[in-house]
Specification:
The chain is 49% helix and 13% strand. The longest helix is centred in the middle third of the chain and has 26 residues. It starts with 12 loop residues before the first strand and ends with a helix. By secondary structure, it is of the alpha/beta class. α1 packs across α6.
Length: 300
């Protein structure tokens, strides 16, 4: 069997959204250790700048609100001005407020769609505009294993991650023969603030962000599209897809996967849930308020 060709990330320019902490920060570190130059964008600019200082001279930080296309475009423009043409865009920013669907406010649902989906759409479109003319580049979209199944307690989150998987599938086909690669990363529960207070499913341990970072780098190096983390969960998903629905649901209950998102430790998640519910810049909030006022005025 022919060995998979590996391309070096040394010297590559990489832009990462939500890069101030968690998976984004670990991925930036993994890339920098391999010689890449990295721009991290985050709504929390102060934390992003602190992270960039920790990671060293090959990392720069900029303000970024992924729900705003102008903000996203400005982030990429600043990154290119500072580091050069972007070779890789990693759409990592996301939130996961947990509630049963009937208890979830419409505002929190909309915020998840804006960050987890529209943010990825903006990032993918803006990356395509830069990469296709150069006939080179790589777009990495961070989804979740919640993008391949439905988990009670996180219905809207699952919906957004299913959408990211579908978006990535379609983008991969549209970009065939352009020189631009696409990867979609699907981690299990990760030991980050977003994953705080969640229990493990049987047979699937909680991941460290460094493990996801290594999988992301490997996907860039080998142009792998489907990135399951850990890899053995791909086999579980394959089996689940051929089992009738009643059997799939019984397996999920046996693995204790059906209550991962519905029975979190609320105390452990309290701080994160409060911050996630406010994950919107003042500018984006003002834009939303103006749009709502205009809609009300049109009805009047």
């Amino acid at each position: 069997m022919a060995r998979k060709q590996v391309k070096s990330v040394s010297g590559k320019v990489v832009a990462i959204t939500g890069g101030a902490q968690g998976i984004g920060k670990s991925t930036a570190g993994a890339l920098i250790r391999r010689g890449a130059r990295v721009a991290i964008g985050d709504l929390d600019l102060e934390l992003a700048e602190k992270t960039a200082a920790e990671l060293g001279g090959n990392c720069v930080a900029f303000d970024l609100d992924v729900t705003s296309r102008p903000s996203f475009a400005a982030f990429l423009d600043q990154a290119e001005k500072e580091l050069g043409p972007i070779d890789v865009v990693i759409n990592n920013a996301g939130i996961m407020p947990l509630n049963m669907l009937a208890d979830e406010s419409d505002e929190v649902a909309k915020l998840q769609v804006d960050i987890n989906l529209h943010g990825v759409i903006f990032g993918t479109k803006l990356a395509i505009a830069r990469m296709v003319p150069r006939r080179t580049g790589h777009i990495v979209n961070i989804a979740s294993q919640a993008g391949k199944a439905g988990f009670p307690g996180g219905a809207t989150y699952c919906a957004t991650k299913h959408a990211v998987v579908g978006l990535s599938e379609a983008a991969r086909q549209e970009l065939r023969d352009t020189g631009v690669e696409v990867s979609v990363v699907m981690p299990a529960v990760v030991n980050t603030e977003l994953g705080s207070g969640l229990h493990e499913a049987r047979g699937v341990k909680t991941l460290e962000p460094e493990e996801v970072a290594e999988a992301i780098v490997e996907a860039i190096e080998t142009n792998r599209f489907d990135v399951w983390v850990p890899r053995n969960t791909a086999a579980i998903a394959t089996v689940m897809n051929v089992v009738p629905r009643r059997g799939r649901e019984a397996i999920a209950r046996f693995l204790k996967a059906d209550d991962i998102l519905s029975t979190p430790d609320r105390g452990a998640r309290a701080g994160y849930e409060d911050r996630a519910a406010q994950s919107q810049s003042e500018a984006a909030a003002a834009e939303a308020a103006e749009a709502e006022e205009a809609e009300e005025a049109s009805k009047g």
